[in-house]
Every structure is written in C-alpha cells, then in structure tokens.
Amino acid sequence: MKEIIVTGATVEEAIANGCTQLEVDEDSVEYEVIEQPQQKILGLFGGAPAKVRVFVKETPSSVAIAYLTEILTNMGVKDLEITEEVNDERTILNINGNDDDLGVVIGHRGDTLTALQYLVSLSANNFCDGYFKVSLNVKNFREKREKTLETVASKTAYKAVKLQKNIALEPMSPYERSIIHTAVQAIDGVTSWSVGENERRHVVIGPEGLDEGADGIPAKYAKLNNNRRDRGRGGYGKGGYNRGGRSDYGRSGKGGYNKGGYNRGGRGGYRDRNNYSRSYSNTERTQSAPKSDYEGSFSYGKIDFGGNE
Fold it and tell me: Final residue of a domain: which of 82, 108, 139?
C-alpha cells in the first residue's frame, strides 16, 4: 500500500500535499487525521499544523497491478509498464516492457501468461467480496491467440464432419476452451463439449448426434486421406494406387489394381506384370491352365494347345 504522512495548515491542505507527493488525484486516496491543526495563541505563540496519513485507496485492480508488478520485476522484466483497460466484462492489464523479456512472460502457447493471470486473479479476489475478472495481455498476444484458436476450431470441425469422427484437441485453459466452443457454435452440423479433469481437460468436436459427450481421437491423428501417399487401408499410394492396403487398390490386397498396372499379389482382379491372372474374380475362381512354354507365362483361361479340331 502506498501511503505518506504529510502536514499542512489545514487538513485539506495536508491531503492535497499528500496527493501531490503520491502523484494521484484525491478520488484515489483515503486519509486518516493524526493531529488536528492548532492555532497560535494571540497569533504569536504555540500552534501546530495538521498531520494526516494519506494512502492510496486499494481496489481489486490496484491490488492486481501491485502484485503483478512485483512478480514481473523479480522475473527480470526491464522497462516494465502496466496499463489498465476496463470493459463491461473484465479488467485487462496490458503488459509492456523489453521485447527480449516478454517472451518469457508469455511462455509456450501462453502457458506462463495463463498461470500469471490465475495468480493475479486469486490475489485480487482475496481483497474484494465479489468476483473480479482480470485478464493479462502482452503486446496483443491474446488477440492473435484467439484468431489461431478460431482457425483450429474451424479446421477441426471440417475434419470431424468429413471423417464422421469425434476429434479431441489438446488440453486448454477455461478461457481458451470458451473461445473454441464459441467458434464451433457458429458452424452448422457440428457441436463441441469438454471432457477430462484438471490439467487434462480438453475440447472434443464432433458431428451432431455422433456419440455426443464422448472423447475422440487426438487431432494430430485425424488426418484426411484424400489423394495422398498412404500405406494404410484407403486412398492412393505408390505407383498411383495404395501399396499395401486392403481396400481400393493394393499391392498385396484382395482386389483392385496395383504396381505395374494391375494387382501384383492379390486374390482377385488381375495379377502379374503381364496382365494375366491365376484367378478371375474374388468370389469365383476360373479354371487355371497349365503352364505353357510361351515366355514362361500363364495362359489366359483354359486353352488346349494339342487341339482336336
């Protein structure tokens, strides 16, 4: 608490002197009269000035600023300046200082800034009876982070609908989760909810009506399989088609086409690089012919080279 003891010919004059020295206006201070002024006897003898203790009126905002200033100073932030911005929802404390030091204040994806915000909120709310909402911001980091989260919500919603799966995002703070939920509400056909406890609590985005409330696959594994090289079970792979999948086209799969133009080792479709086959279809095998001496390949169908014409 900033306070000072001052004197003056009157109490009012002492208060004015205190505000001047504290560099605040009178609306921001409170005072306590220590001694009332005493007039001189016959205008010549005795008398004493008023003595007043003037101190800055504490508010949740001032407590938050003082607490944050102490922490950042101990963290070594140079040229520190904290400004206050008040709107209808909350008080925003904007942190400015040496650019080389502010990266440490933000932390990885704002983790340090979020932790600081939590501590500052506890300190401020310990002072007041109601609930004081405070946010910390460093060089418009919050605005940039909000745009990033809105983009993440939009892309994840598209994947969820395309794959018809619930997709889980990484754990986030309550503030960041609320941004995701708000962004998803503006997109048709998808919904979002939160699952997990404490530091593992995260948002899940999924198509409406599909296991709503359940957890989902992590976002980093929810990859669309459109026209990309994939050794998995779908899509296209090396040689223009899937190299090892069981569906669509496969190298050793059960049907379709593959490297060299046709299925190389499958049970159905066509086989071999010369476009011939041991078997004709997946459901019904053709009668295989014996080997011929013609280029060491299999004959197509059943052909009798002996011929009884």
Answer: 139
